[in-house]
Amino acid sequence: MRTLLRALGALGGVGLILLGVAVARTLALKTPEAVTAPAMTVEAPSADTLAQHLAQAVRFGTVSWSDTLPPNVPALDSLHQWMVKTFPRVHATLKVEKIEESWLYTWEGSDSRAAPVLLMAHLDVVPVEKGSEGTWKHPPFSGDIAEGYVWGRGTLDDKVNAVAELEAIEGLLAKGLTPKRTVLLAFGHNEEVLGSGARAIAKALEQRGVRLDLVIDEGGALADSVFPGLAKPTAVVGIAEKGYQSIELIVKGAGGHSSQPPDETAAGVLAAAVARVQAAQLPSRFTGPTEAMLDGMAPHMGFGLKLAMHNRWLFGPVLTAQLLKSPASAAMLRTTTAPTMLSGSPKDNVLPLTARAVINFRILPGETRETVKQHVVEAVHDDRVQVAFTGIGSDPSPVSDVTSEEYDALQRTIREITPAAVVVPYLVIGGTDSRHYSALSRNVFRFSPTHVSASDLKRAHGTDERVAVNNLPDLVRFYSRLVQNVAINIK
User: Fold this and answer.
1) CA distances from 336 to 16, 66, 126, 236, 321 (A)
2) Residue 78 burial class via C-beta count within 10 angstroms: exposed 0-12, middle 13-18, buried 19 and up
3) pLDDT by residue (tens digit) across 117-161?
4) Phi/psi of residue 190, each to 5°?
5) Which residues are catalytic?
6) Domains, the chain, ordered by start
7) Three-state SS across 256-319?
8) What average pLDDT does the segment 411-417 reach?
9) pLDDT (average), residues 10-31
């Protein structure tokens, strides 16, 4: 910011006028009144009971290895049998359908004219890197309860939400409550490998003519001290997610012995092409979801950050430069370029017949898989290099409306459970199963009321994944209250 202020100073009077306008706009920016949502007393099982249930779910090794390998059907079936036993009211009352190896639950509402709501989670988990098991404080599939946490794969991503949603419906059924609006639960079996199960459920609903009023999936959380300058817990609600596509570069060579190499081998041509693509980063820009996040945070920041975030028309270059310094925040501003796989000759003294690289892109809203591919072709700028899509990809999701009644209901529910939370939209930089439901609803939101710190963000898909035991009742209260707000207590 000092750089821009010096530049403004060099412009003399014009710069001072611009700065004065920015300061005046910032001083006029008031911290918004909290949405009317007094804290609610919502019942939930004890933290100890919930911890035991989540620990039991973690012990089923429902690992998704890759999209080319079959799912672990015995583990998935065993987990579902445990769900039937643990949540008897749910399974006695709701219609349960198996679609592929995923599950769709239907709690029929009394008003057939009201569009259903969908609560989502996934039952699979990522593998533990081979050889790293011994670095975990508690074995990754032990479900140990220790030091105030439940430990293991799925405690953050994403069995915690599946268990919490089932606990919430079980509790509502125990009270004798019934919805006016139909409530659906969808539990995908392979979200971690591009989610064919969720895609199949979405297709089945589409074929039945179902339109969804609201979709809730993982993707956002309650961030504690994650954002510099924002001390309050921040409920970040994903209103869109980036697209996904891997692109492969292939170079053919003549082969032969390494003692008589040509001026450029296939591997050398490939390496140069990868370096050019990595150097040609796609342009950074503020998209609607990121702008909405900054607008939501600005009133709660100190004056300096508030000045920059609220006056992006003036301080945009400085703000962009700061955000690009961190990979996490940079990912919100541009399509990311990540070379991930390289292959060539099978032996060190053999020239490769084929050299291959894979580059993974997470695509910013406003761009597409095709525009990214064209960017790669132009960056490579070498007819010897073949450029092609590889694997399954998806364009960025549509952006959900933060002025909708459904977003208001979600925002109100968050504040009923966590009154101090600052609720802001944001762009999910990874991928979720919810992208498969975009054609069925305009209101797809990605949020879980799990408290996460900066260190917790590294645990999902990493070592020592865990969730705090005392956080678990709030997850159940959130889903219970959300269902009441959007499906039970409606006109």
Assistant:
1) 37, 22, 22, 21, 16
2) middle
3) 999 999 999 999 889 999 999 999 999 999 999 999 999 999 999
4) -150, 45
5) 124, 191
6) 47-230+398-488 (3.40.630.10), 243-283+334-394 (3.30.70.360)
7) CECCCCCCCCHHHHHHHHHHHHHHCCCCCCCCHHHHHHHHHHHHHCCHHHHHHHHCHHHHHHHH
8) 96
9) 68
